[in-house]
Amino acid sequence: MGSERVEMRKRQMQVHQEAAASVLQARHRMGNTPTNASNACCFCWCCCCSCSCLTVRSEDETIQRSTFERRTEGTTNCEESPKPSLDDARSWPMSFEKVMKSAAGRSCFRQFLRTEFSEENMMFWLACEELKKETNKTVVEEKVRQIYEDFISILSPKEVSLDSRVRDVINRNMLEPTSHTFDDAQQQIYTLMQRDSYPRYMNSSAYTDLMKSLEEPPPEP
């Protein structure tokens, strides 16, 4: 399983490197490519250059980043989250929307995604949901940058799989970050989870065991 994960990441890296290269080439033709380190640090969002801002972080930024990650990751184990009701869990096979609208459903599904080495998809989706609630412009810009570095950058171990069209949209949106910068990407990841991981979860032992535990009568005192 580990080797399959490595090969998948290699394929994703190759595709995303090609997409990033095409974006940089387009910017160079338009005269928008930074020509020195200081400019790169001001405008480098894609993490494709070697500017010093990628390796040097201030103490305040590190603290903000760790706080943001703790908030967006949240509960990572179905057993640690509020236990779903039997009716709630029974509704999940009806639609993926039922799972995603349930806090317990998201938590249990996320635990399953971890076993498939794709937990970053849920983490990214949740981070986008938190971003859309933010109204402070400064905080929005900081969260956008953190989400990019955590889930979009080809250098991130938690990079999500996006096609070149969506990546182009993101790179354009990064010029003026808003709380909706990642809307297209969030929808693509939602669709990926719906079509790919959700059917497997519904047929998995994880969901079957959960239902058995909810259907069992409570032990007598």
UniProtKB/TrEMBL annotation:
Pfam families found in the cross-reference section: RGS (PF00615)
Highest taxon above the source species: Eukaryota
Region (Disordered): 67-89
Bias (Basic and acidic residues) ranges: 80-89
Domain RGS: from-to ranges: 95-211
Family matches, as PANTHER family: REGULATOR OF G PROTEIN SIGNALING (PTHR10845), REGULATOR OF G-PROTEIN SIGNALING 20-LIKE (PTHR10845:SF260)
Name of this chain's protein: Regulator of G-protein signaling 20-like isoform X2
Organism of derivation: Cottoperca gobio
Gene: LOC115025388
